[in-house]
Specification:
Elements: H1 12-38, H2 46-54, H3 68-79, H4 82-114, E1 118-119, H5 125-134, E2 142-146, E3 154-158, E4 163-168, H6 170-177, H7 179-195, H8 197-222, H9 240-280, H10 294-299, H11 305-313, H12 323-346, H13 356-382, H14 390-406, H15 416-440, H16 446-464, H17 467-471, H18 473-485, H19 491-502, H20 506-524, E5 526-528, H21 529-549, H22 555-577, H23 581-603, E6 604-605, E7 608-609, H24 612-615, H25 621-632, E8 641-643, H26 647-661, E9 665-666, H27 685-716, H28 720-735, H29 744-768, H30 777-804
Parallel strand pairs: 2-4, 7-9
Antiparallel strand pairs: 1-2, 3-4, 5-8, 6-7
Length: 805
């Protein structure tokens, strides 16, 4: 029996189809987002212009300018382009799905016309009706005959409303010669009718629409064919490296989408084979199946014969979540999310202060949690075996990481910190998936499912949605973590402060960590008394260690040593107790609670504590305690459990969450861990200058150059009237307001050059328009202005070259 025949277990074909749709949507948003920013041509550099006008330069240093007025000005400027961009983005998606729907609806008629299909002869009507009944179809498909193909075979096609099976003319001879082979082939096509005809041809429709309506126009505009008229050419981007960066991202996305398409078509064949085995009782019904060539094996619609035989020997293997299908699904969710965020950013909605970041984190968590839940569901139906949950869990983590790198708007270079963050995320995703799978094996009722589903969603949202920080890990480490660690002397203090700083969502994190042990206990309706006893004893030992260490030395260092002592007790207690993983997590949790209370008491002075770290030790201890339980626990037996309602477990979890949500205030003399906010925003000056150039700065300079050329043309012609006219035109150009270059040195030479030129212009008007005396200042000021403007131009060119290098 295949996975689709099991009640309630979703099909892998659907998962692969969803991946293809998400990748098509992601690519459409990418391409039509470029169209939106390029057409009409005058708006192709609107982002740079708005940055210049608002004074807000968004460089790759990821520095956040605290001046809200700049952000307001930038958003107001970009809002002028919102309507046109929204039309492009929405129109791209409408075009994709409209063309796909048209292909989906018209394809059956086209297949019938192209292959000249006719109704099957009457002699096949009765045997086909028997096979339809054997396949359990409530409604028989329309059987047609392909008179052009003499080789025995068939194909199922159609839509979800009307389905067809075309049999080759060779099937008539096969029925007389080998009736069992005839029966097998027809049942195979009926298996497609029963399970996947609609989704198969929806896959082909999406792929063809993706190629025809999205990729082809982009390629034609990108390479600017000679026959293309100017309005429909992609404007040349000043920085060609951007175009090529987007292009290689696009090529990768197309490759992944093609792989998803092939995966859908191959998965349907395996499912049909499993159904045929179930109906016929024969583990190898296709003994005469010809082997396909290697190229067709790689790119064709059918899987390799060896893989098909393996599925037919063990149809239940279809339930096992695969590494590659999970990787593709996670990558598709990630890329689609990234490009959706980029599209919303283009529409000026996605920004700090309006809740959009939190909303989009929730939007990301829903499909990712659904993917993890599906892995758990299918893995539980398959049966927990070695690697059933860990392997697809690793694929989830890698899919998130690779999807973030495939984001065409991610130009942040890979660094050591991004690699470390990626490894941590992949490991966390693996553990979360293993936990979800273990909990799925405990589900017995629908109520259990309602408990587990939201729990998976919350854990996924809290423990995995920090992937966006990986991209800026280098900047976060440099700007937020290092300034704090540099203020500390002791290595132990730094080791404790680091997780304190990184766990900025302390309450959601504590809730998620509590769910790791609470949900299994609720589903089993058991309470681990032995683990609780070990936690109580360990809690007493941890409190004693905290009291013995006291608060000698600086309060900050003393708190760090106390937290380390509590973690050491957690490790020892979990290792000695030798309980299962759930019991180990509960033991560490109880010890952390006792340690937190002891730290508060030893540092309490009136109504305040003497250390900032002592205010929230439970921001650190649940995290380190969970790691301790995962490292030292889980190697023993599931012992000491008693049937119980989840009141005790829920009460302990609520107490831990309350401890994380409330904390005593630190004394005013306590050393702050947070560095003082920077007085100036640090950004890459060369990048900002490059933005200024393309945001109107170079046009501004060229306007000055052209205006002054008219003056010097009059000088060369020795025409006083032309000189006076040129000076009258130059003056307003020099006084036209425009933001200064973001580099102070360049701004100085630019300002001095304009001032000198304006002084020369005033002297010019006195001499050539008003017939006044020439005191020689006109020539000297013009020469000074030319020198300063030349220096400005050279500095701008050098800054741009550095920015693009």
């Amino acid at each position: 029996m295949d996975e689709g025949d099991r009640p309630g277990v979703p099909s892998g074909t659907t998962l692969r189809f969803a991946s293809l749709v998400l990748l098509a949507v992601a690519t459409t948003l990418l391409i039509f987002g470029q169209f939106a920013s390029a057409w009409p041509a005058p708006t192709s550099l609107d982002r740079a212009r708005c940055q210049v006008q608002s004074g807000l330069y968004l460089t790759t240093t990821m520095a956040v300018d605290p001046d809200e007025s700049k952000w307001d000005g930038y958003r107001a400027c970009m809002a002028a382009f919102l309507g046109g961009r929204a039309v492009w983005l929405t129109g791209g998606l409408v075009l994709l799905f409209s063309v796909a729907l048209l292909i989906y609806v018209l394809r059956p008629a086209w297949v019938r016309y192209r292959r000249n299909l006719v109704p099957v002869p009457d002699e096949l009507a009765e045997p086909l009706a028997e096979l339809v009944a054997e396949a359990g179809l409530a409604r028989a498909p329309i059987f047609l005959l392909d008179r052009a193909k003499v080789r025995a075979g068939g194909v199922a096609f159609g839509t979800h409303r009307r389905k067809y099976v075309a049999l080759n003319v060779g099937m008539m001879a096969l029925r007389r010669i080998e009736p069992e082979s005839f029966r097998t082939i027809v049942l195979h096509e009926l298996a497609h009718v029963r399970k996947d005809v609609g989704i198969t041809y929806a896959t082909l429709a999406i792929w063809r629409a993706y190629v025809v309506a999205v990729l082809t126009p982009y390629v034609l505009t990108l390479f600017q064919p000679l026959w293309a008229v100017t309005p429909f050419r992609m404007p040349r981007v000043p920085d060609s490296s951007y175009t090529w960066a987007v292009l290689w991202h696009l090529i990768a996305l197309v490759g992944v989408a093609f792989a998803a398409r092939v995966a859908v078509l191959r998965a349907r064949e395996k499912q049909a084979d499993a159904l045929v085995v179930h109906w016929t009782g024969d583990p190898d019904p296709y003994r005469l199946l010809p082997h396909t060539g290697r190229l067709r094996r790689w790119f064709g619609h059918h899987p390799a014969p060896a893989r098909r035989r393996a599925v037919m020997r063990d149809p239940k293997s279809l339930l096992r979540p695969g590494f590659w299908e999970t990787l593709g699904s996670a990558l598709a969710v990630q890329v689609a999310w990234c490009h959706t965020v980029a599209a919303l950013h283009e529409l000026t909605w996605y920004h700090e202060g309006n809740g959009s970041h939190l909303i989009m984190r929730v939007v990301w968590a829903v499909p990712m949690a659904a993917l993890i839940g599906l892995i758990a569901w299918r893995g539980a139906a398959f049966g927990p075996r070695r690697g059933t949950f860990a392997v697809p869990g690793l694929a989830v983590g890698l899919g998130i990481v690779l999807g973030d790198r495939l984001d065409a708007h991610n130009f942040v270079p890979i660094s050591l910190h991004t690699v470390l963050g990626s490894l941590a995320l992949a490991g966390t995703a693996t553990l979360v998936t293993v936990w979800a799978g273990h909990c799925a094996t405990l589900v017995r009722t629908r109520w259990h499912g309602w408990v587990l589903g939201p729990s998976i969603a919350f854990v996924t949202f809290t423990l995995l949605s920090w992937f966006s920080e990986i991209r800026i890990a280098e900047a976060v480490w440099r700007n937020n973590v290092i300034p704090v660690l540099d203020l500390l002397d002791a290595s132990v203090t730094k080791a404790v402060v680091l997780p304190f700083l990184l766990n900025f969502n302390r309450v959601p994190t504590v809730v998620a960590l509590a769910l790791l042990w609470l949900v299994p206990l609720v589903l089993r309706r058991e309470f681990p008394r032995f683990a609780a006893l070990a936690g109580v004893i360990g809690g007493v030992a941890a409190a004693a260690a905290v009291v013995l260490l006291g608060s000698s030395g600086t309060p900050l260092d003393a708190t760090a040593w106390q937290i380390i002592a509590v973690v050491a007790v957690q490790l020892v207690a979990v290792a000695v107790a030798r309980t299962d993983r759930v019991g180990a997590l509960l033991t560490a949790w109880l010890i952390g609670l006792a340690g937190t209370a002891a730290i508060w008491l030893t540092h309490l002075n009136g109504s305040e504590v003497d250390s900032v770290l002592a205010t929230r030790p439970h921001q650190v201890l649940p995290v380190l305690g969970t790691l301790a339980a995962l490292i030292a626990g889980g190697y023993g037996l599931q012992r000491g459990y008693a049937r119980s309602r989840p009141f005790w477990a829920a009460g302990i979890a609520v107490l831990g969450v309350a401890t994380a949500a409330w904390w005593p205030h630190a004394a005013s003399t306590a050393t702050s861990l947070q560095a003082a906010p920077p007085t100036e925003t640090k950004f890459d000056t060369d990048e900002a200058v490059n933005t200024w150039i393309y945001g109107g700065g170079w046009d501004r300079m060229m306007a000055v150059v052209r205006a002054q050329d008219k003056v010097f043309a009059g000088v060369r012609a020795a025409d006083p009237a032309a000189i006076a006219a040129g000076c009258e035109e130059l003056g307003p150009v020099l006084r036209e307001p425009f933001p200064l270059p973001p580099d102070p040195k360049i701004a100085t030479t630019w300002t001095e050059g304009l001032r000198a030129m304006e002084n020369g212009t005033r002297s010019c008007l006195v001499v050539f328009r008003d017939s006044g005396p020439d005191d020689g200042s006109m020539a000297s000021e013009f020469i000074k202005g030319l020198d300063q403007l030349e220096a400005t131009q050279n500095a701008l060119v050098e800054a741009r070259e550095r920015a693009l290098s």
